[in-house]
Amino acid sequence: MERGKTMKLSIPEEELVGSGHLACQGCGATLCMRYALKALGQNTILDIPACCWSVIDGPFPHTSVKVPLFHTAFETAACVASGIRAGLDVLGRGETNVVAWAGDGGTFDIGIQALSGATERNDNIIYICYDNEAYMNTGIQRSSATPYGAWTTTTPVKHFKKMPKKDLVRIMAAHRIPYTATASVGYPEDFIAKVKKAKEIQGTTFLHIFSPCPPGWKSQPEKSIQLARLAVSTCYFPVYEIENGEKYTVNKVIKKPRPVKEFLEQQGRFRHLTEEQVNGIQKNVIVSYNELLKKAGLDLEVHVEIKK
Amino acid sequence: MAKGKIIYKRAKDIPLNAMSVGSMLFNKTGAWRNVKPIIDYDNCIKCMICWKFCPDICIVIEDENPVIDYDYCKGCAVCVVECPKKCISLVEEGR
Ligand SMILES: Cc1ncc(C[n+]2csc(CCOP(=O)(O)OP(=O)(O)O)c2C)c(N)n1
Ligand code: SF4
Ligand code: SF4
Ligand code: SF4
Ligand SMILES: [Mg+2]
Prior knowledge:
The complex is a heterodimer.
Chain A: H1 28-40, E1 44-49, H2 52-56, E2 62-63, E3 69-72, H3 77-90, E4 97-103, H4 104-109, H5 112-121, E5 126-131, H6 168-174, E6 179-184, H7 188-200, E7 205-210, H8 214-217, H9 224-233, E8 240-243, E9 247-250, H10 261-264, H11 275-295
Parallel strand pairs in A: 1-3, 1-4, 4-5, 5-7, 6-7
Antiparallel strand pairs in A: 6-8, 8-9
Helix pairs in contact in A: 1-7, 3-5
Chain B: E1 22-23, E2 35-39, H1 49-53, E3 59-62, E4 65-68, H2 78-82, E5 88-92
Antiparallel strand pairs in B: 2-5, 3-4
Bound molecules: thiamine diphosphate, iron/sulfur cluster (SF4) (3 copies) and magnesium ion.
One iron/sulfur cluster binds next to α2 of chain B.
């Protein structure tokens, strides 16, 4: 659409997600889809296993998205995409984007076998995982993407999660996947650029998107975007990409990280943590970030002072 | 794609192959709202940051202005927090 000189939009104007959908107020997962489809365009087929997005889309025979969407079983995001791809290729429709779209539970846990299989075969699909760090659709149970320290209904306060978050992007890199990246709804321009890049690549691509969830994180809906950005500026969720499993690029280099406490304290799911536990998280965040900077060949080491 | 709500009265009307034939636009989510964002156009710089971050796709661009569609706005207040000019205010919904 033609626009006058005064207004410049930083992301495409076309909307392929409509209003009236069933997501909660301030849902990051919905913004993930909105941005991804802006990058993918109309010539796209989605397949979605059981997750919040199966509900957000709306009940049969209604939908919120303007592209075909297959609802599939929980563990099958990647293999259904592989099948759709094979079918389209027979029909000579190589141009159509096939996108597996799943939550962290459907990706890090139950769907990892199918994802690993598709990636090893290098099937020409785009896999997008929106990560809200728990099984939200069924009422906030822990997943292997739930971070250390978080409350969920299956890791209640006294028994908060003791295991660290699984580093799935590294697992994907170990497959020598042509392209894998992390992104955040706090930075839609970066996210959209990555989806566009994935679209151009023949072979499997995997995007891991940080996606705030107010009811699951016990955070304020209006803070969703702020939290997504804080996750990046504290180095809690770095935004980077890896080509062919080897070439690391950090897309947002944080030279002076903000204390991770600023991110944690705005979420009820971390409210029970002691100062010592928060300091432990801070230490791990910085260690991992410095490792990442090193892998990207950056001559930089960051610090955050822990106040005693 | 149909805009209204689709209701099948008889089982035999349901398509054999379950597929979506209508949009969710019938679902006026504005009824969920308990606070209402209001844009002060005198201070708005038309940066469209509010439009960019609205999770409900209910800020539309009309003549280069952001316009909130209250039929769908859920009152999450993301736009209020993100507006760099702080020109979106929140008022309580009275019902
Ligand atoms: C085989 C199987 N086990 C369990 C379920 C129930 N189930 C539906 S959605 C869901 C959680 C999905 O979590 P995630 O993938 O993180 O997506 P989110 O709901 O957080 O968006 C579960 C456990 C199911 N549908 N199928
Ligand atoms: S539970 Fe979380 S991810 Fe699911 S619709 Fe609500 S805000 Fe979105
Ligand atoms: S309050 Fe939320 S739903 Fe309403 S216009 Fe603002 S961002 Fe959109
Ligand atoms: S974010 Fe604020 S200043 Fe920018 S267009 Fe929206 S209302 Fe106007
Ligand atoms: Mg989840």
